[in-house]
Amino acid sequence: MAINYRGRTALITGASSGLGVEFANQLAARGAKLILVARRKDRLKQIADAIALKHKVEVTVIVADLSEVGAAEKLFKSLERKKLSVDVLINNAGFGTFGQFKNEDIDKISEEIRLNVLTLVELSRLALPRMLKKKRGVILNVASTAAYQSIPYMAVYAATKAFVLSFTEALWGELDGTGVTAMALSPGGTKTEFFEVASNGKAPDGLGRLQTVEQVITVAMNALDKLNPPPSVISGASNFVLAVSGRFVPRQLIIKIARSMFKSRI
Q1: Which pLDDT belongs to residue 208?
Q2: Annotated catalytic, 148?
């Protein structure tokens, strides 16, 4: 049975581009009110105005850098002042770094871990009690097919997404029977700004055809529409095959293949 989003409030992080914008559009199309969170004020305002005009829903914009220490608590205090509660939490904000780990900027990788892992966990923890009290709610955490294998030259990013996948699936287990759903979404290569941020727009060879954001988010929404949503979902049949193949192939071989794919792009 499809979740009824009409009149519910969805908070979407990383809402100024890519998957975040598409999540906003698809949830608004189902009647959800939105809280859009990102760093780019002008971009957020443009997106909010366009969605409000198209779908006739209430859209609130909150400008925040969620990679900062204490950002999650600060955001929820802002929601309390605005008397806003969260029925659907989309933890989409995140970024990756690319290159030899020995050369990585330590401040940058600290931000990466904070945003991809710590802020995601804190936002989930802050949103959950009220969802449990209402006996309904959704926490969707964006992981990646990178969560399913170690990736040389994207060591930190892949590790953060492995955490997201494991954490979310465990949370799904804890929430069984409560009316609250937790699910991890693992996209593969997608047409977003990701590679521009991670490696100056250079997508490594061998990623295959990139999916559109519409395809990825439709997979997520369809999974949530199931009577019993799964703890995690991988977007795209070929991505699924690649992700699960690691169960049947020696890890050393998988790591060597990944190394050869990414090394040429350093």
Answers
A1: 56
A2: no
